[in-house]
Amino acid sequence: MPSSAPRRPKQPKKQEPISYDINIPYVDVDKQSKISTKYPQYLPSWDPIWFEPLQPFEYEDPALRVRNKSKPNLLPPTAKVSHIQPSLGTIVENVQLSDLSAAGRDELALLISERKVVAFPDQDLIDAGPDAQESFMRHFGKPNYQPVSGSMTDHPAFHIIHRDGNRDEIARFLQQRTTTTLWHQDVSYEIQPPGYVMLGLLQGPEVGGDTVFAATDLAYKRLSPAVTAFLDGLKVTHSSAKMIAHARLTGGLVRKDPVDTVHPLIRVHPVTGEKCMFLNGEFITRIDGLKDSETKWVLDFLMNHLVTGHDFQVRVRWQPRTIVMFDNRSTIHSAIVDYLDDDYGAKARHIFRLIALGEKPIPVYEEDEDEKDEEFE
Ligand SMILES: O=C(O)CCC(=O)C(=O)O
Ligand SMILES: [Fe+2]
């Protein structure tokens, strides 16, 4: 929980001049009041709040409460359901998330577990304000407080993604990199990482700024038994240290100490029972028992497999007031920053992210006694 008085010395208000992660844009806080936005309340703020480390907590996936798999509380006969790809990604129209009962929200968790990425265009929840949005997400799990990056004053669970159309930051980022695409899983370093994640589009370009997702369970199924037998037993360290060190070095605000957590490389999805690869290019520092070059070899192979397999990917095109809910356990994702090119004209893109933290990742291997967390807060 947030502590009211910051424990740390006062930190500079400015965010780092070059984002560590292009998915988390830098906005000059001195200028942001002048930026035109339809949702000024959602412009990022950097308040010096300090958060203690996340403690273990009990988690039951709401999808496990669903008895009627046809989801009558979520999908009445008037709902229009269309799939983006055969194996993942669904668009649901004529349903307002704000109207869902508790049973409807449980069924939504099941739909997200099954389809991994679900888009709901034209949601009045977008205009219902931060309290309503947070309370909706609370059904799916505990909130997350991001250690760095822009949030909202009095609503620290919000993570704000805002680009005002300024191309300079992208140009600086691209001095070091060949693309803005940055595949990742959200907050994988926490002891209980995000399960369900909500992205809400406040403002976006007419064309471009899609978000792309890859299914880590479908990708796993493509591997041979010899490879999966090796992967199933691996333990991986996820760390927020590099991201936090980068923020500190560049004068950015930090709200939490770094955490290093060992997770299984392959985790079992609590709802579908599928084996999901739990990895990303951002936060992994080592694989237990492997040498550095071997860790790199495994990660390079798996990341390449995930990002090149378009047959288990989906690309979401944002329509106005869309809310996307996705499963952070069975997917990896990236924003696509393609809407700032000269040919298209610079455009603003403004999204909020709310996270529901889920279960401690369930390994395929038998856990040692000391790895099992018995104590919950
Ligand atoms: O902007 C997007 O489409 C995704 C943003 C994202 O992945 C993040 O902020 O974690
Ligand atoms: Fe993300």
Automatic annotation (TrEMBL):
- Say if the entry is tagged with keyword Lipid biosynthesis: no
Gene3D superfamilies this protein is in? Answer: Clavaminate synthase-like
Q: Which GO terms describe its molecular function?
A: 2-oxoglutarate-dependent dioxygenase activity; metal ion binding
User: Which SUPFAM superfamilies does its entry note?
Assistant: Clavaminate synthase-like
Which InterPro entries does the record cross-reference, listed alphabetically?
Answer: AtsK-like, TauD-like_sf, TauD/TfdA-like
Q: Which Pfam families match?
A: TauD
Q: Which parts of the sequence belong to the TauD/TfdA-like domain?
A: 82-354
Question: How is this protein annotated for GO cellular component?
Answer: cytoplasm
For this UniProt record, the keywords arranged alphabetically read as follows: Dioxygenase, Iron, Metal-binding, Oxidoreductase
- Protein name, entry field: TauD/TfdA-like domain-containing protein
The record lists the organism as Penicillium egyptiacum
